Amino acid sequence: MSGGGEGSGEGKGVTMRVEVDVPKCVASGQCVMIAPDVFDQREEDGIVVLLDEQPASELHADVRESAVVCPAAAIRVVEK
Amino acid sequence: MKHVVVVGGSAAGLAAAETLRREGYEGTLTLIGDEPYHPYDRPPLSKQILGGQWEPDRVPLRAPADLDALGLELRLGVAATGLDLAGRTVALADGARVPYDGLVIATGVRPRRLPGDGGERAHVLRTLDDALALRDRLGPGRRLAVVGAGFLGAEAAAVARGLGAEVTLLEPAPVPLAPAVGERVGRMLSQAHHDHGVDLRTGVAVAEVTDGGVRLTDGTLVEADEVLVAIGSVPNTGWLEGSGLTLGDGLECDEYSAAAPDVYGAGDVARWHNPLFGTAMRIEHRTNATEQGMAVARNLLRPDERRPFAPVPYFWSDQYDFRIQAHGYLRGHEEVAVVEGELAERKFLAVYRSGDRVAGVLAVGMPPKAVRTWRQAVATRAAWRDAVGELLPEGA
Q1: What range(s) does the Reductase C-terminal domain occupy (chain B) (predicted)?
Q2: DSSP one-letter string for B25-74
Q3: Using a CB-CB distance cutoff of 8 angstroms, which residues of chain B are in contact with residue A19?
Q4: B41 to chain A: which residues are within 8 Å by CB?
Q5: How confident is the prediction along chain B (396 residues), in pLDDT tens digits per residue?
Q6: How many domains does chain B have?
Q7: Which of A20, A23, B136, B328 has the most CB atoms around it within 10 Å of its CB?
């Protein structure tokens, strides 16, 4: 998860991998509203669709926010 | 700021603590929770946990390593008992006094109870322990009486029915959840209970829990092996009595969600002024806990840059084979329009008017983009006449 005490962690060379725990998703769509280039929702039930497993660095802040806001804690962000 | 104390170890408290660290706060950060568990998610308690699809290992909100990384001083299994506002200390049940420069109050709510003594067969459903205790007593042929057909009672009734229990659902109002979702959607929910074999009795008030079931105000005994009391929640503000903070329906906070200088409220316990809707509200939704916890952390850390907390509230409810999703503030609405689909099909989108604006949207089985579009209408304070007027036939 993205929760870490390391400040913003932005900058060149930081890669981010995003994982979604689909069974946990409750289809609130918050992630799509925050980071529409990275997340979408399935038409039939609104469950999350991960569009980009390794988003570019300019999207990182929004993806971290999505992970934190997700009401199901279904988004995991791994940064190196 | 060197010492921040977060009182409340669930979703809002966790969000506040995490956000403080993410925003660069490096001082001491104490998280106090009255339950002996690391922060965990409550919505699954009335769904997958009660139904047995998940074991308790799936409800913690963060993996232990991620929680450790926050560098928290965790005090779990101990309740806060008092607040010295002038002296800036929180008193705990174990006798400790915890000093703070900044304080987040996120102590949530507890279930309202009924009089009477049903012993072990009388349940509430707020904590993981509650859910596991009830789960263990449900199964084919067991008779469950659920008092209160709000979201919690409705979900538990649906799950219990799925486990093969005989379920009686007792509700004082003529239509369940009418204040929350309106009468038309409330009637749809009633029909769903009937369709799944739940004995929903409306206009029925329960006087007490007994060891045979529940006794109604007219003296009738509704027999049950187990009883779930789901009649609403009471904010946990007792520990703040006499502190000087304003308490009413929860901890009263301003539009920044501040209760006093350097003291903020977040989550189920907080009643704050939401400028997006121009009214005070206390929201017991899961998403609000996180959003408000995040917002108060930022306001606490940077008071010069603090921003009003003006969210579009969101809630969802899983009942039987459908999911309700709603964005906005539907309470006190004056009009509902079903703009897509059919209630009877359980595929529809309804919008709600308060004053001259679109105040909320509620959907079941609708494409997410349609729902998000209406959420945007709420967020931008769209006028009802503009957003909805053209969609309805003349005279509707």
Answers
A1: 314-384
A2: --SEEEEEESSSS--B-SGGGGTHHHHTSS-GGG-BSS-HHHHHTT--EE
A3: none
A4: 72-73
A5: 999 999 999 999 999 999 999 999 999 999 999 999 999 999 999 999 999 999 999 999 999 999 999 999 999 999 999 999 999 999 999 999 999 999 999 999 999 999 887 788 899 999 999 999 999 999 999 999 999 999 999 999 999 999 999 999 999 999 999 999 999 999 999 999 999 999 999 999 999 999 899 999 999 999 999 999 999 999 999 999 999 999 999 999 999 999 999 999 999 999 999 999 999 999 999 999 999 999 999 999 999 999 999 999 999 999 999 999 999 999 999 999 999 999 999 999 999 999 999 999 999 999 888 999 999 999 999 999 999 987 776 544
A6: 3
A7: B328
* Best CA proximity match to B182, nearest among B358, B323, B337: B337
Contact B316 A33 (CB under 8 A): no
Q: Is B315 a domain residue?
A: no
Pair B46, B190 in one domain? no
Q: Token digits for B120?
A: 């072990």
CA distance B148 to A25: 27
Q: Do B372 and A45 touch (CB under 8 A)?
A: no
A29 in contact with B, Cβ within 8 Å: yes
Largest distance between two CA atoms of chain A: 39
Mark which of B265, B280, B305 sits at the end of a domain.
B305
Q: Are residues B272 and B205 in the same domain?
A: no
Residue B313 belongs to some domain of the structure? no
User: C-alpha A49: how far from its chain's center?
Assistant: 10
Kindly state whether residues B132 and B223 are assigned to the same domain: yes
Q: Is residue B131 part of a domain?
A: yes
Domain of B103, in residue numbers:
3-110+234-305
Predicted complex: ipTM over 0.85 = no
Interface touch B316/A1, C-beta < 8 Å = no
Give the CATH number of the domain where residue B352 resides: 3.30.390.30
Q: Is residue B7 part of a domain?
A: yes
CA angle A21, B318, B183 (to 5 degrees): 145
Domain end residue (candidates: B229, B264, B289): B229
CA end-to-end span of chain A, whole Å?
Answer: 12
Any residues with CB less than 8 A from the CB of B132 and at least 6 apart, and which?
Answer: B49, B56
Domains, chain A, ordered by start: 25-79 (3.30.70.20)
